[in-house]
Amino acid sequence: MRILLLEFFSSGGIFIDSECERSPHERSTLVDEGWKMLQALLRDALRRDGLYIDVLLDESCDHTTEEALLHANVNCHPVANAEQFTQQLDDLAVTADYVIAIAPETDELLSQLAARLRKCGASVLLPSASQICWSSSKTQTCQMLTDYNIPTPGILSQKQLASLNQDAFVVMKPDDGAGCVDTRVLTIAELSSVKPNSDMLIQPYQSGTDVSVSVIMGNNPVVMSPLYQQIKNVNQVLSFTGVEGDVAAEHAERATQLADRCIPLFPGARGWIGIDMVIGETPEDDMVIEINPRLTSSFCTLSEIADVSLVGMILDNATCHEST
Predict the structure, then answer these.
(1) DSSP count for the chain of H helices, then E strands
(2) Separation between Cα atoms, residue 303 and residue 290, nearest integer Å
(3) 103: which of 8, 187, 230, 277 fits an S-S bond (Cβ 3.0–4.6 Å)?
(4) φ and ψ of 206, to 5 deg
């Protein structure tokens, strides 16, 4: 089986990145962080026998230190400009049995990448276009979760905000944000001095333990071991710093049950989704915060502790899905 591994920024997508205001430092950081994710994906894939792997890679990445690229079953395709990225992406995608692609939801990067791959006939392991669309929007995700009676913080209207105590905490975040980017925790009193952008939404702050649960989608969805999310609050600004295992048994059980309830929202989906949630003081306080329709950083941690290839599990579920 031949697969194409693609992480948008480190695979050369940075050359067609639509965000023209990114600084050189930010662009370099995105490529470096993406390269780490791509390395984890490649190393995991090589644990599965019988895979022939194509990798698109920005030539600025230090590929000389990655032994996995020297494996006989790996073919690395360096990218130096936008033309090389688009041409090689189109060529390699159609020759691959499957494409495993990673991109953030912001600026519609994920949806545009998925659309491009599917337009050229690639079998890309991502949710459907409509599923990527609604789960990339926190407003639409909130509505979808509500429709399925899955507990989630609501979006506060101006009238509701006006009725809250001045000491009450709320969360302000962009509708299409990824991770904790531009996410702030404020009191109602502090919020009154802030002028949020039109794409910002405001929700009640949910106290509790931050947990992430990943699911391999397909005919037989596999709920992976929950992980604790490390989220820091510095000067009212939230930042995501990673995940860790050793989740308490009670937290793991409740998180898994909540993740199970989210699976029906993605009928027919293949690939990987990540579900971020808060486990509260009691099960009635547990809430889903958002859903990522793609591979997340949790993959790296889960791959390290897994006894088998997670890429292999993704492919097995995709193949099973197609054969039924």
Answers:
(1) 10, 13
(2) 22
(3) 8
(4) -105, 115
* pLDDT over 60 (residue 132): yes
Distance CA 109, CA 126 (A): 13
pLDDT digits (tens, 9 = 90+) for 138-165: 999 999 999 999 999 999 998 999 999 9
pLDDT tens digits, residue range 92-107? 999 999 999 999 888 8
d(CA 258, CA 254): 6
Could you give the C-alpha distances from 145 to 3, 136, 227, in angstroms and in order?
Answer: 33, 13, 21
List pLDDT tens digits, range 273-316: 999 999 999 999 999 999 999 999 999 999 999 999 999 999 99
Rounded to the nearest 10 degrees, the angle between the axes of helix 82-95 and helix 109-119 is 50
Say if CB 33 and CB 11 are below 8 A apart.
Answer: no
Q: Which amino acid is at 46?
A: L
Distance CA 135, CA 265 (A): 10
Give the Cα separation of 126 and 160 in Å (integer).
37
DSSP structural state of residue 220: S
User: Among 19-33, 50-64, 76-90, whose mean pLDDT is lowest?
Assistant: 19-33
Residue 323 DSSP symbol: H
Cβ atoms of 138 and 201 within 8 Å: the answer is: yes
Q: Hey, what amino acid is at 223?
A: V
